[in-house]
Amino acid sequence: MGAQKLPYIRPDVQNLLAMLAAQPGPQMQDMPPTDARAMMTGMAQFAERPRGDLAEIRNLSIPGPHGHTIPARLYRNNLTDTPAPVIVFYHGGGWVIGDLEIYESLCAEISRTLDISVVSVDYRLAPEHRFPAATEDCIAAARWVASSPAEIGHPVTGVIPAGDSAGGNLAAAISLETHGTLAAPILAQWLIYPATDMSATTGSMAEFADGYLLTAAGMEYFNGHYMPEGADITHVWASPINAASLAGQPATLVFTCGLDPLRDQGRAYAAKLIAAGVRTIFREADGQIHGCITLRAAIPSAQDDLHACLTDLRILINEAA
Fold first, then answer.
1. Which residues form the Alpha/beta hydrolase fold-3 domain (predicted)?
2. Can 165 be counted among the known catalytic residues?
3. Does 147 participate in catalysis according to the annotation?
């Protein structure tokens, strides 16, 4: 019986993984959430590209579903008042970490490249606010943006839910919950290495359980903080793959990474969309790790992955317009 074949790892990915493996200190899953949040902020400061210029970047306040305010940030590449769609972006971080600042470079790059307005949503985090708080905030944000509030600066002709990892989970849940009920239609959705099945323990979750940035133990940590004791992890807001049907969902771009524990969840969701007759573009980055599109300084090839996705997304938006 031959030796197990090692997966392909891009050279820039290998360099980052080697550097991280040499760092002393505890793993994220061994820290309290406040320390884990600081770790993600520190990672972004050296691993992400500079934000660059944009016509406007402005903070927003979105009415929340329980009387609270949801912080958000608007990115505009131009200041015209021409009616246009808006991307509503939900950041990753396992529903526990992540914020507007960490995702500022990415959201600016999306706005600049597609010449589209982007609203980044700072939904409530666990464990301070457990499931379904994040989903409730993200639904409220999508409804608010679709209503063409004056704060956006132009009439909104459609929304595009988008997000990475936990944010991909939220984007999928928002499309399942609100498609066909918003003041402006959902034109497309962009699911970036999404978490779609909280029960997953086999396949890529086992194959890439350790050594590729996101770990299986890290996902257990996030899920444990996010889901209340005894909560149903099969609920479609927690595990969108369990939706009875995906028929009628908006056109979808699913992006996965070849070395990601969540890879098979994204593959499975894309396959279920395709089987349901949904216009779907599936893209997988071979030799790439989870989190790459916010690590573009440390992983230069991730910039090409991002722009390939944006080319795909432009196609779906133009088809729906």
1. 87-293
2. yes
3. no
* 81 annotated active-site: no
CATH of 47-320, one of 1.10.260.40, 3.30.420.40, 3.40.50.1820, 3.40.50.970: 3.40.50.1820
Catalytic residue among 137, 260, 264, 312: 260
197, 204, 290, 312: the active-site residue: 290
Q: Around Cβ 61, how many Cβ atoms within 10 Å?
A: 10
What whole-number distance in Å separates Cα of residue 143 and Cα of residue 185? 10
Reported as a single tens digit per residue, the pLDDT across 236-281 is 999 999 999 999 999 999 999 999 999 999 999 999 999 999 999 9
Domain ranges of the chain: 47-320
d(CA 148, CA 97): 29
Please tell me which residue in 117, 165, 204, 239 is annotated as part of the active site: 165
DSSP β-ladder status, 56-63 and 69-76: antiparallel
Burial of 217 (0-12, 13-18, 19+ CB in 10 A): middle
Is the bond into 132 cis (omega within 30 degrees of 0)?
Answer: yes
| Spatial distance between the Cα atoms of 101 and 156, rounded to a whole number of angstroms | 25
